[in-house]
Amino acid sequence: MAILKIARMGHPVLRRPADPVADPTAPEIKRLVADMLETLADAGGVGLAAPQVHVPLRVVIFEVPPHRAGESGPVPMTHLVNPVIEPLDEEKLLGWEACLSVPGLTGVVPRWRHIRYRGTTPEGETVEREAHDFHARVVQHECDHLDGTLYPQRMTDLSLLSFVEEMKHGAPPIQATGKPGED
User: Fold this and answer.
1) Is 28 noted as a catalytic residue in this protein?
2) What pLDDT score does 176 carry?
3) Which tens digit of pLDDT belongs to each residue from 123-177?
4) What is the DSSP string of 39-66?
């Protein structure tokens, strides 16, 4: 396993749609996921997409830790290849997001509150789940990377883009589902 370099906003790998993976169970996909897990553990955060480590493939990893789970409960570390998202209602929630590829910044992003997602694990199992609130936000954030989208592109009010360091002086008065600097 290896800790991989994280691409930052502006790098071309983050601007293009990632390629589908022909064989989710291929040894190179399992190695990639292992390296992504080590990279995420080193960097901190709750999710990582393959394009963020300079690999333009449709692979994501994420979890919902107990302290972020809310009513839906925690979600163990999940590895998905070729994930697909389907919104299940029209409601969107505003929430704070940060990103390992946009270091030092945080912003308020609208996301679908309730989604269904599915994908294949590197072991060849199909995962299909419904997600609400923070769980849904994390999945949407990571899958956006697969389409060449970073969270600032989703923001509807750029006055709510801030340096994490400045948030120590108090977050803007907004109802948000996430915490500044965590994602």
Assistant:
1) no
2) 45
3) 999 999 999 999 999 999 999 999 999 999 999 999 999 999 988 877 665 554 4
4) HHHHH-SSEEEGGGGT--BSEEEEEE-G
Residue 143 assigned ligand-binding role: no
Q: Map out the domains of the chain as residue ranges.
A: 12-168
Answer whether residue 181 shows pLDDT above 50: no
CATH class held by domain 12-168: alpha beta
Where does the chain have alpha helices with state H? 27-43, 133-146, 151-154
Q: Hunting for tokens 């999940």 — which residue is that?
A: 78
10/178 Cα distance (integer angstroms): 25
Q: Provide the 10 A C-beta neighbour count for residue 91.
A: 10
CA pair distance 99, 150, nearest whole angstrom: 8
Catalytic residue among 142, 165, 166, 182: 142
Query: Is 114 marked as a binding-site residue?
Result: no
Report the SS3 class of residue 13.
Answer: helix
Whole-structure pTM value? 0.91
